[in-house]
Amino acid sequence: MAHSFFGSIEKAAAERLILWAFQEDLGERGDLTCQGMIDPALIATVKIVSRQPGILAGLPIAQMIYQQMDASIQWEAFAVDSDELTAGQVVAEVTGPVSTLLTGERTVLNFVTHLSGIATLTSQYVKLAAGTKARILDTRKTLPGYRSLAKYAVRCGGGHNHRMGLYDGILIKDNHLAAWKPSGSVAEAIEHVRAQMGANIDIEVEVDTLEQMVDAMRAKPQIILLDNMTTRELTEAVAYRDQHASEILLEASGGVNLTTVAAIAATGVDRISIGALTHSAPQLDLALDWGAALKK
């Protein structure tokens, strides 16, 4: 089984989101359907099954949900996050009161299908960039509250995380330049930030043209983000970087999809950042299989 990346940060994020999920789903009255139909003494074993191939992410959250609802729930996992799943594969078995299993079903699937979808899409990009040095990175384009878990799912799919938030990295974008000094050069902006934040601070800067890249390189940022450039421009940028400042990392962004990513990776860029990993990933189809016999 593959390695799981689920740690204390992800657990804390999941605990907060699970609480919110319970509040919005159960309100003050609980599950009215189960209250009106299901014998509280009824016990069942259900299976969490993948209906299609993909990469698993979020399974520990499913266990957390059910065991927070009822400590007597029995949980057995047959896979771990980052595992590659086949259609029909059983990833876990859960035994407990039917009312609890039914009440938690949608909350469980909301987490696991969403995060597995992110991991699966990330894996597709990673495979298309294989054989190059390009790393596939996510962005800050995540649903509020979900960032730690979304970025966790990216790692499960073989991708890498860009900065977690504004607090842990400097990225000078075109809007920053325009707000600071519309006529200022990129190199000037980098030097200004260093003067304000300290000479040892790592800086990434976004450029739209090769001319801006050449200007930025004069100030030696750690990373230059090449925004919406053609593969020809990216190839030229890599060649110029290799000749004049090979220590600077180049990151491609914009216009990246499953059709274009292989060609972009082949230009020689070091990093490719893709917002779609977290904001446009389709859910992976997982379901609860209620085939097991019910008992009291």
TrEMBL record:
GO terms for molecular function: nicotinate-nucleotide diphosphorylase (carboxylating) activity. Residues 118-289 form the Quinolinate phosphoribosyl transferase C-terminal domain. The keyword Transferase applies. The keyword Glycosyltransferase applies. It comes from the Bacteria. Substrate binds at residues 106, 139-141, 163, 173, 206, 227, 253-255, 274-276. One of its GO terms (cellular component) is cytoplasm. Keywords: Glycosyltransferase, Pyridine nucleotide biosynthesis, Transferase. GO terms for biological process: NAD+ biosynthetic process; quinolinate catabolic process. Pathway: Cofactor biosynthesis; NAD(+) biosynthesis; nicotinate D-ribonucleotide from quinolinate: step 1/1. Its EC number is 2.4.2.19. Residues 31-116 form the Quinolinate phosphoribosyl transferase N-terminal domain. PANTHER family: NICOTINATE-NUCLEOTIDE PYROPHOSPHORYLASE [CARBOXYLATING]. Involved in the catabolism of quinolinic acid (QA). Belongs to the NadC/ModD family. This is Probable nicotinate-nucleotide pyrophosphorylase [carboxylating]. It comes from Planctopirus ephydatiae. The lineage of its organism: Bacteria, Pseudomonadati, Planctomycetota, Planctomycetia, Planctomycetales. The gene is nadC.
